[in-house]
Amino acid sequence: MLETVLRQGVLGEDDIGEESPRNLKLPSKRPSIVCENCLYSLEKDRRVRAFHIMDPKGILEMILVFLEERGNGEAIPPSFDNFKEDTERILPHLGTWKGHSRTTRTGVYGATISEANTTAVLEFDKDGQLVQDITSTSGATNITTNVHWTGTMSENLVTFDGGFQLTLLPGGIYMGYPSDVAKNVQESTAFHVEFCWLESPGKRQRLIRTYDVEGFAVSSTYFIESKV
């Protein structure tokens, strides 16, 4: 299904050739992937909703982020108060994070739930490359897996080897996605998108959605982590 969508979508941001209103960026009318993630605050009565929107060719076209607070009669809406320079947005995420994950697989893939203890390390090496190591130990089988990535950073964009990218946003948020979903489909490999919210300096939440090559959601993994 996804391969068909990717092959047919060739016109880009406006699928019928119509011009968008000036100074207004509109998503494709036939996107290949639209993924919504939502994380609720651990400290206040608010939430962040984030959207990954892939164009018909499988390239990230747009990121949308909404910071929302439950109505309390105040006229001033919540806002992202951390407008650091692009190159500084990585700093709160550096270091070692330990926590717990819970993965829920969809009914098509068995409707199972699994939990694990996790350790994520993100740091720059002596050559200025960004290095990420994520270790996960299953609570049921006690099996440990490790994922090691190296990457480079340019302004607010991190690009890891293999084509996975992170866009660093204000407010302790980053969004991760494959640079080219069509390549994953051609190689018959699954792919995932990630949403991270670091609401306070020592605690963060992450949500990862995994898709198969047909574009069907396979699983959702929720992480809650503390900095050590």
Structure description:
It holds the Pfam family BFA1_C. Residues 94-228 form the Biogenesis factor required for ATP synthase 1-like C-terminal domain. This is Biogenesis factor required for ATP synthase 1-like C-terminal domain-containing protein. InterPro entries: BFA1-like_C, Calycin. It comes from Solanum stoloniferum. With 228 residues, this protein is mainly beta. It has a single domain, classed as Beta Barrel (Lipocalin). 6% of the residues lie in helices and 51% in strands. It has 2 helices and 13 strands; from the N terminus they run αββββββββββαβββ. The chain has helices at 2-8, 181-186; strands spanning 33-40, 46-54, 60-69, 95-105, 113-124, 130-138, 144-154, 157-160, 164-169, 173-178, 191-200, 203-211, 217-227. The strands form 2 sheets. A 10-stranded antiparallel barrel has the order 4-5-6-7-8-9-10-11-12-13. β9 and β10 form a beta hairpin.
* Percent of residues in helices: under 10%
Order of helices and strands: HEEEEEEEEEEHEEE
For the record, the count of structural domains works out to 1
Low-confidence stretches: 1-18
Looking across the biggest beta sheet, what order are the strands in? 4-5-6-7-8-9-10-11-12-13
> Mean pLDDT, rounded to whole units?
81
Task: Give a count of the beta strands, DSSP E runs of length 2 or more.
Answer: 13
Superfamily (CATH H level) name: Calycin beta-barrel core domain
Instruction: Quickly give the CATH architecture.
Output: Beta Barrel
CATH fold label: Lipocalin
Using the CA coordinates, give the radius of gyration: 18 Å
User: Helix segment count?
Assistant: 2
Protein name: Biogenesis factor required for ATP synthase 1-like C-terminal domain-containing protein
Pfam families: BFA1_C
Domain Biogenesis factor required for ATP synthase 1-like C-terminal: 94-228
